[in-house]
Design goal:
Length: 272
């Protein structure tokens, strides 16, 4: 099966597809031939799509799910540097949520954007677990508290904080998931040395996309640590065999609005 499909009537033989291919497997066109990937190199294709989206005449189609090709509408997707800067600077971690659930359809729209996140070698190893039931979120938070109790009077860095966290939980507060109605957990294949970074990149896409949909997020650090170490919590997550939790976010509709941008430490840059 051909790796790329080229429309000879549209191809201008500019050579851009060959230049931008990160695997250097696209042979450039000449007077007599169109761009092509030789069969011997086809297995090196990582299906990144650079060749297709960089073609000025849209003559080239990566032969991977060709029926799902999306044409970007003209004059869309452009965001000014000023607007993007303000959007990112006003991003906040949300720890107070309304009781209103986020519809599944809206969550899927955010995830559909997050799946375009960069990954090593375009491996796209990240899959998602959405805990949509608030009662299940609280059950998982309780298992995290159980994990914390096993660390009391130990040398674990969290040991000194645990009495306060446990007391909060017993007072009907939730120091783990902050009463969030939902959780998103990125899970990855076991034994993949770069997939944990891929998961953080994908979760960051979820994190920065969510506010555009009226969703607030917060990184679920306690739960993520427990999921990496505590068998009862791992069993409760019930991830597919051969996969493990990488990290998670709690999310829901924010209870409060924000009206400003807080200060941060001064920028520190070293130039070489």
């Amino acid at each position: 099966m051909a790796t790329i499909l080229v429309d000879q009537d549209l191809c201008t033989r500019c050579g851009i597809c060959s230049v931008v291919c990160p695997m250097s497997i696209v042979d450039p066109a000449d007077e007599n031939t169109l761009p092509k990937v030789q069969d011997a190199k086809a297995g090196l294709c990582i299906r990144c799509g650079h060749c297709e989206i960089s073609c000025p005449s849209q003559a080239l189609l990566l032969n991977f799910l060709p029926g799902e090709r999306v044409q970007r509408p003209a004059a869309t997707g452009a965001v000014s540097a000023e607007d993007l800067g303000v959007y990112l600077k006003k991003r906040r971690s949300v720890r107070h949520f309304t009781g209103e659930p986020v519809p599944r359809e809206k969550i899927l729209r955010v995830l559909d954007i997050a799946r375009y996140a960069a990954s090593g070698g375009n491996g796209q190893p990240v899959q998602w677990l959405i805990v949509h039931d608030p009662e299940e979120v609280r059950r998982l938070a309780g298992l995290c508290i159980d994990w914390m109790k096993t660390l009391q009077n130990s040398s674990h860095p969290m040991s000194g904080y645990i009495p306060t966290l446990v007391a909060d939980w017993e007072a009907e507060n939730d120091p783990v998931c902050r009463g969030a109605p939902h959780l998103v957990i990125a899970h990855i294949p076991e034994g993949n040395p770069v997939a944990s970074v891929d998961a953080l990149i994908a979760l960051t896409h979820f994190d920065i996309t969510a506010p555009a949909f009226g969703i607030g997020t917060c990184w679920a650090g306690f739960l993520s640590m427990a999921a990496a170490a505590y068998a009862p919590l791992q069993e409760a997550l019930a991830l597919p065999a051969g996969r493990k939790s990488s990290y998670g976010l709690m999310f829901g509709h924010p209870q409060y609005k924000t009206y400003g941008i807080p200060r941060r430490k001064p920028l520190q840059v070293t130039w070489r």
